[in-house]
Amino acid sequence: MSTDLSTNLAGIKLKNPTILASGIMGVSAASLKFCEENGAGAVTLKSIGHNERIGHHNPTVYVWENGTHNAVGLSNPGIDGSIDKIKQMQSQLSIPLIGSMFADTIDNFVMVAKKMSVLKPAIIELNLSCPNTADDLGRMYASDIKMTYDVISAVKKVVGKIPLFAKLTADVTDIAEIGKSAENAGADGLTAINTVSGINIDIKLKRPILTNKVGGLSGPAIRPIGVRAVWNLYKAVKIPIIGTGGINTGEDAIEYIMAGASAVGIGSGVYYRGIDVFKKVTAEMEDFMREEGYKSVEEMRGVAHKA
Amino acid sequence: MNNEKPIALPIKKILIENERVKTFIFEHDMPFEPGQFVLTWIPGFDEKPFGLVSRKKGEFMITVAAVGHATKALHMMEVGDMLGFRGPFGSAFSLPKSGSVAMVAGGYGMASLFNLAKQAREKKLDVHVFLGARTKQELLYLDWMRELGVKLHLSTDDGSEGYKGFNVELFKERVENKPKIRNTKSETNSNDQDVSSFDIRNSILIRSILWGRKLWR
């Protein structure tokens, strides 16, 4: 019996469900190619914005006993400074490239999306939920039903046939409402979840460790939060979901898929298990599927809801 | 990884090396290999990597030039002020079992090589250090190096001490006159190709560079 690890995201076929999540490694053709060589089914750019950003001062990343914590602050060269780099990535990659982007205003979202869509990435992912930039970018779009709707419907008009995904946060009262709003606005898929907002304090220095004070938690600590978010979204929407948050093993990935995800994003897992985390997770999924008699990822998707 | 959590330490002592450079001493046992660095958190400003230096167990230090906003803030700090440390990180230098070793260090580049020189002397190696700086005042750790018993070859840009010019030129001159020294490239830093093209035998050359900053970028 053959096991089919492939999956489909709004018409984009992935050879396996592991995706390099945004923010890790997604800055050069060489690092993305390295992920491909290590088994990634798709890769995501580090979010690109309307202009260049330097990001926060260090410490920007902190690893504590249950996960990782970062407030890098969306450092990126800006869309105009990224176009040649993205073209170079596309010429070297044979797996789908997901273009992650953000902006401050809806007009700038539209501007960046227009420029990015000319490059024809496999998917455009709107980062509506970075938790680390409140001061200068304003409130997260994904914290509000109307803001989510407005930005997605505006961007949808300028990206043509490129599938549009919205990256959501679990730091809301009801993520399902936000997900529905995204779907109604024309989103072709959802990515959930972004990092979870948190603070770690150094009690000897008597101050938050990250320079931005607040930062996004990732890693094993947030996995049950992510699984719950995907669970709620799966019940609320029909569009595919990329489940992200604390996935280190094939078992972790399967939890997300059983909650309703079509694919899984891996970020801090690269830190915990090395760059071949994609190969490892895929192999572990395959073992599980063989043992349990699942023939395809699709067959497992959402099964936990039937319990 | 237990080195990911910052260790908060007060500044035990501050040495003023020259008008741009200070050495900050901390009372803490920080085992490291020569060439490794420590991430130094200057609270409220930034976290930067600095080469680790230690003259005795239970104590380590960092030598820092005030160049950017974080290092200038560090220079404003006083004995008793707290810093956070994560590390050590980075790869280390390695030494041959016997013979001669030449080290070329400019300015505060010597910070990353001091413990290698110390280790080499403990292994009874014959150590030649080509130490260069802009002026006499900026030649780092001179007394400590003399204590170690290394053979010092000094140079300054302005000729205020030793050879007038770059240490690399002095190295080239002295090494060419001693064709017994061989250059085995260390796998560490430096893009300086001039140095690595010499045909010399029986010695290992370990290079540092003029601007400590380049080490970490």
Task: List its traits.
A: 307 residues, alpha/beta, 11 helices, 16 strands, B: 217 residues, Elongation Factor Tu (Ef-tu), domain 3, Rossmann fold, 2 domains, disordered C terminus
Helical content of chain B, roughly?
10-25%
Number of strands of chain A: 16
Question: How many structural domains are formed by the residues of chain B?
Answer: 2
Oligomer: heterodimer
Placed side by side, the strands forming the largest sheet of chain B appear as: 11-10-9-8-12
Q: Would you identify the CATH architecture of chain A? A: Alpha-Beta Barrel
Q: Please state the second-level CATH architecture of the largest domain in chain B.
A: 3-Layer(aba) Sandwich
Task: Give the biggest sheet of chain B.
Answer: 5 strands, parallel
- So how many helices of chain B? 5
- The radius of gyration computed from the alpha-carbon positions of chain B, rounded to a whole number of angstroms, is 17 Å
What general outline of chain B do the C-alpha atoms trace? globular
Structural class of chain A: alpha/beta
Q: What count of domains describes the coordinates of chain A?
A: 1
What is the H/E order of chain A?
EEEHEEEHEHEHHEHEEEEEHEHEHHH
| CATH class assignment of chain A | Alpha Beta
Query: Low-confidence parts of chain B lasting 5 or more residues at pLDDT below 50?
Result: 179-204, 207-217
Structural class designation of chain B: alpha/beta
Strand order of the largest sheet of chain A: 3-4-7-8-9-10-15-16
The span between the termini of chain A is 26 Å
What's the name of the CATH homologous superfamily of the largest domain in chain B?
Answer: Nucleotide-binding domain of ferredoxin-NADP reductase (FNR) module
Summarize the biggest pleated sheet of chain A: 8 strands, parallel, barrel
